[in-house]
Write a structure and sequence with these properties.
By secondary structure, the chain is mostly helical. It has helices spanning 3-31, 53-76, 82-109, 141-149, 152-180, 184-210. The protein contains 6 helices and no strands.
């Protein structure tokens, strides 16, 4: 092999590598799935309908979770109690992550993240905002202001009471979704969510009792 041929070999290999990468990128672009997902059998699944439990739950629970995270941040800065702060961190991390998942699914389904449809319509008993609360279990603006103004034990008791009511309604909504949703994503998430919130309701009852308070 001549010196010139040896010198050109790296360029040949480099050119081949670039070609292979280009082919892979083209193939990935061609076979990339559309907004509709595919099942294990290869059949294309349509996105959940606008009126479905899947879409309704994802929207409503995203709003429900957003307020839970807000309340958890409020108590985190108003108490030094490690147990209450640990619970707040758990709620912040878990519910913020779940909210992100639900909003992501809405986006992948091509459904708007908000709607003029009545809240909880998908459950068969639509509600409209009343008394400053968007949905059952959610705190009113006045209650949130009270939590912002409170500190120490007073803030802890108020937070635990508000979050208990919040969780009870959230668990009911999750159980409804677990029983009526069509997608595995929503069913699995809702089932786990109901179990977790019921467990935290029991925990908060014990924490209120330790503080000489009732739910």
């Amino acid at each position: 092999m001549t010196p010139a041929a040896r010198a050109s070999r790296p360029l040949v290999w480099a050119g081949a590598a670039v070609f292979v990468v280009a082919v892979v990128l083209v193939l990935l672009t061609v076979v990339r799935p559309s907004a509709a997902s595919t099942s294990g059998s290869g059949a294309t699944e349509a996105a959940p309908a606008e009126s479905s439990a899947d879409v309704g739950f994802a929207r409503d629970m995203s709003v429900h979770h957003q307020q839970a995270v807000e309340m958890a941040f409020l108590i985190r800065d108003r108490t030094t109690d490690e147990d209450v702060r640990r619970l707040a961190y758990d709620i912040i991390n878990t519910q913020a992550n779940q909210r992100g998942m639900m909003l992501g699914w809405l986006d992948s389904w091509g459904r708007p993240k908000s709607s003029d449809r009545p809240r909880m319509e998908w459950m068969g008993h639509p509600v409209t905002a009343s008394g400053g609360s968007l949905m059952p279990g959610m705190a009113t603006g006045t209650e949130l202001d009270e939590l912002r103004a409170a500190k120490g034990r007073e803030a802890e008791v108020l937070f635990l009471r508000l979050m208990t009511v919040h969780h009870r309604a959230g668990a009911e909504m999750a159980r409804a979704a677990a029983g009526s949703a069509d997608t595995d994503e929503i069913r699995d998430l809702a089932e786990g969510m109901a179990r977790a919130q019921e467990s935290e309701i029991s925990l908060m009852a014990d924490m209120l009792e330790e503080r000489g308070a009732t739910p």
